[in-house]
Amino acid sequence: MAHIxxxxxxKEYKRKLISRELSVETVKSLAASISTRYxxxxxxxxxxxxxxxxxxxxxxxxxxMTPEHIRPDGAVILFILAVLIIMEVLIFSAIYLxxxxxxxxxFSKYLEKSYPELLSDYGYLAIINGTASxxxxxxxxxxxxxxxxxxxxxxxxxxxxxxxxxxxxxxxxSVYLAEKSRSSKNHTALLVVAIExxxxxxxxxxxxxxVALRIKEGKNYPIKKGMYLYRDTSVYTDLGRI
Length: 242
What we know:
This protein has about 240 residues and is of the alpha+beta class. It has six helices and ten strands, in the order ααααααββββββββββ.
């Protein structure tokens, strides 16, 4: 996987995200790079906040140890401490919001607009939780479904596909559409927005059963009977990809 290092999302990537010019593999690579960068910045942020808190605590101790005849009035001390703490909180909140999480939020915003089917896997929460990073603490359960039937919905661009779900699928998950062969690297990513069990009951997730999956804007994709839906079967653990 290629790693792309930068301090902010470039105009070129903004443009390509908006126009959906990036492949799924490139989106994965970007999300992994952003997640790795976020982790490094978060560690530096926590270290800086801890040092600042230690310095503030030391200042308080030194102030309390000052001889009474030169020590400021108690109300003055409380005022100074309150102002100092408020300033530190505001400064560190701004740093975290605009520096540490700035790029993840920006990337997620463009992803939501142009690649909503990938948001659950590579959006803001996946980036800050580390599940989007290479070797992140994440396990993707294998999933595949042979499309037995397709149902078109009235007054909607969504469609419903039916078949037997091998493995786990949840509403909000992205899935890939493929022919019988998975050799191509440019499979189409789709978004599952709702699930019904084989008994027609709406559920939030399903595994190893007959299901009906509602695919967002499915009419815009070349979905046919006999094709497959699947999720990446890579397994991630705390020790990295295996």
